[in-house]
């Protein structure tokens, strides 16, 4: 029973609200249809526009003096932020391209280094082969001179191998220790932040 009473109450309330709304609409239309009111609003609209313009000027003066950002200032900052985001994306793309090209360059440098090492190894093998050929001839001439010459050649061969290993390790170290531009940029940004 209580549900029926509640439903009836809400139905009556709805009818009352609809009736009140229609009365209010009729009242508004009646006042808007009067010529006197439209003339009054028309005459005052010019004055209202002037007042609004003056208020905006005073508002600009006050916000400038108090260093308070205006709506236009915030809109300009938002535009600048969007522009800087776009530029940052372009810079990131360029760094990515540079990093990829440097990666290719490092691979090319490593290949050149490997080729150079191969050539140097071939020269060392050629020299050692030549030394092996020369050794029997030296033994024929004199034992003393051959032993001292062999020692000198062995020493030179050893020095050549040491220099070759040092230069190779330095070149490999230089190639491997190169920092990518993107990593360097991130490190610099972290220092600033």
UniProtKB/TrEMBL annotation:
Keywords annotated in UniProt: Coiled coil
Coiled coil regions, renumbered to chain: 81-130
Name of this protein: Polyhydroxyalkanoate biosynthesis repressor PhaR
């Amino acid at each position: 029973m209580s549900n029926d009473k509640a439903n009836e109450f809400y139905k009556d309330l709805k009818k009352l609200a609809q009736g009140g709304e229609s009365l209010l609409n009729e009242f508004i239309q009646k006042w808007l249809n009067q010529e006197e009111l439209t003339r009054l609003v028309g005459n005052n609209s010019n004055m209202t526009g002037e007042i609004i313009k003056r208020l905006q000027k005073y508002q600009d003066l006050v916000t400038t003096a108090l260093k308070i950002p205006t709506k236009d200032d915030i809109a300009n900052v938002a535009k600048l932020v969007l522009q800087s985001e776009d530029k940052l994306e372009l810079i990131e793309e360029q760094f990515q391209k540079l990093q990829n090209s440097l990666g290719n360059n490092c691979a090319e440098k490593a290949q050149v280094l490997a080729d150079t090492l191969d050539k140097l190894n071939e020269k060392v093998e050629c020299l050692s082969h030549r030394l092996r050929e020369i050794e029997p001839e030296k033994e024929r001439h004199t034992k003393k001179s051959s032993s001292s010459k062999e020692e000198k050649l062995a020493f030179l061969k050893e020095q050549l191998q040491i220099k070759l290993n040092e230069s190779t390790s330095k070149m490999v170290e230089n190639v491997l220790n190169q920092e990518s531009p993107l990593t360097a940029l991130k490190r610099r940004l972290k220092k600033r932040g």
